[in-house]
Amino acid sequence: MERDLPPDLVALLTGSFPVDANRLTPRTTFAELGMDSLATMELLVVSEGVLDRPLTEAAMRLTSCSTLAEAVDALGCAASPAEPEPVPHNP
């Protein structure tokens, strides 16, 4: 099952760029959202401030052909699980 995107990445994309939240999936590329390499770099710069962490080398290698799942991994965003983990019950 495909994981959900972290809410902070969704908010960053929809708040900073003219993208439709309904089009955002882990397999979506930045190019499919109409974001070229300059827009992708702008996202990285904005995310550094919003997420309050320095950019990693992996983040600096993201391109317009990168997927949002790759961005989640490179930016170190905490992705929401597709389904919640069951909580063990001790009787």
The CATH homologous superfamily is called ACP-like
The CATH topology annotation reads as: Non-ribosomal Peptide Synthetase Peptidyl Carrier Protein, Chain A
Largest sheet, described in full?
none
Label the CATH architecture. Orthogonal Bundle
Radius of gyration: 14 Å
Termini separation: 31 Å
Structural class: mainly alpha
Shape estimate? globular
Number of helices: 4
| Assembly state (oligomeric) | single chain
Average pLDDT across residues? 83
Order of helices and strands: HHHH
Give me the count of strands: 0
| Number of separate structural domains | 1
Broad CATH class: Mainly Alpha
Which residues sit in consecutive blocks of at least 5 with pLDDT less than 50? 79-87
Any overview of this molecule?
The chain has helices spanning about 5-15, 35-50, 55-60, 70-75. It is built from four helices and no strands. Helix content is about 40%, strand content about 0%. Mean pLDDT is about 85; it is low at about 80-85. The chain is an all-alpha fold and about 90 residues long. It is globular. It has one domain (about 5-75): Orthogonal Bundle (Non-ribosomal Peptide Synthetase Peptidyl Carrier Protein, Chain A), CATH 1.10.1200.10.
